Every structure is written in C-alpha cells, then in structure tokens.
Amino acid sequence: MAPNVNLQRRKPQRDIEKLRKELVKQEEQQKKQQEKEQKNQQNKERLALLAKERCKRYYENKKQKKMAAEAANLQLNGGASISTSSFKMSSGLSLPLPNYNVECLRKRIWEKIDEHYTKHFVKHFAENEF
Region (Disordered) spans which residues (predicted)? Predict the structure, then answer.
C-alpha cells in the first residue's frame, strides 16, 4: 500500500504545478497582449499626429505660394491689385473697370474651389482623428 499512497500524494502536486505553469503562461500572454495593444495605440496616435503635420505643412506651403503669386502680380501691375482700364460712358464719365482676362477668371474660380475644399478637408481631419 505504501507505493499507492505515494502516487496519490504526487498527483495533486503535479496538478498544482500544471496549474501554476498555466497561470504563468496566461499572465505572460496577457502582458504581451497589453504591450501589443499599447504599441498599436501609440502608432495610431503617432500616425494621426504626422497626418495633421503633413496637412498643416501642405496648407502653409500653399498659402506661401499664393502670397508669392499675389506679390508677383502686384509688381506686374505696378502696385494695383487688379489691373484697371478706363471706360467712357456716353455721358463722358471715365470709370475704372477691372481688366479681367479669361486666365485670370479661371484662376480665381479655381482658388475659390480650392479654398472651399481646403476648409472642408481640414474640418474633416479635425473632427475625425484616426
């Protein structure tokens, strides 16, 4: 009977050891999962920040280009923001009218369209962070 008693005592000890090993494995897996989730969250935050910075740089560069184009236009027109020409009415009054050519009008239309979409694009990214 003695050998049989020893087997009965060892079996619960083995079960306890197995349970300990399983608990240790589960804890390690939980730690790994938490680290992975934390890393993913940091990556999401970093990507969102980078996207915002890219948008900001894009619109700052665009604004600088627009200002440079306006400055060049001012130099071209001799200080006038819009080139003007005189128009004589039948009464003899001379009125300055803007001299719009097709290219100038096309450029203004595209600027307005671009401003509209820029405003909504920035608004969208400000509301919907990745």
Answer: 24-47
